[in-house]
Amino acid sequence: MTDLNLPILDLSQLDDGPEAAAAFRDQLRAATHDVGFFYLTGTGITPELEERLHRTARAFFDLPEADKLAIENVHSPQFRGYTRIGGERTQGAVDWREQIDIGPDRNTVDDPDAPDFARLIGPNLWPAAQPELREVATEWQEHLAGVARKLLRAWALTLGAPESYFDEHFGEPSTLLKIVRYPGSREPEPQQGVGAHKDSGVLTLLWVEPGKGGLQVQRDGAWVDAPSVPGAFVVNIGEMLEYATGGYLIATNHRVVSPRFPDDRISVPYFFNPALDSRLPLIELPEELAAEARGVTQDPANPIHALYGENALKSRLRAHPDVAARWHDDLLAARS
Could you tell me which CATH number the domain at 8-335 has? Predict the structure, then answer.
């Protein structure tokens, strides 16, 4: 541990020989068994790419409102595109942020017998006024997909599974990139940028604007700050990795507190998850690790599904009730 509230791990150790790689894997297992969150350096993301992402994100949010609303997510059955301030909810409460959601660009599924979650497959909505956003978002996602796969192979080994365990069970990853702006609040009490929640998938890599705070992680019943660290991502695991390890690894509650006006904050989380039709089976842990597995934390009102597509669809329907009502009222009726 450092004087920060979360441990810092260096991914480049995996390429520094067997001893360094083994040490990294031990640190990775400990961090996600004890906390579920850590800082990650050594990812190979260059300062130039970070600066380009930051500049492009700022330029998007500075677009005229009409340009942003032209790609508002109410136009997308797949919940892609721009979400205006107050347009997303966590645990039923409104989040104070604006954002654009970007997933794998694919054709929609035209099959009446396809599972409900297949409705999430489809194209992105890109701003015509800013073509650079598509370019930098694509480059960013391609690099982070490699980082995510490297982490998952390290987790597999340190949990006693074959290195290819997650590769074999992931299929074509279902990813989501969110480029987010948290505007400043004038309210005397801290406001909800994002409400307390656990991520529903497997792995999240979060880039935070340098010098900015707001992210808080729950540790031992208290909220602790996780400010930006130069050159580092904040990494956390989601409920499916907790599920796959029988609770040996832990998905942790976290939230974002709005900055004070006139300050604001750019944040870019990247979610790396299995194919929508993939199931993550339980890993057969070594005896000494299995003895420390806590079991999966289950909220009866928010069940964890082994099939990732069910988790993803549940999350989208809850987070964006306006999109759900416009395109998926039959699903809402079936779940009521």
Answer: 2.60.120.330
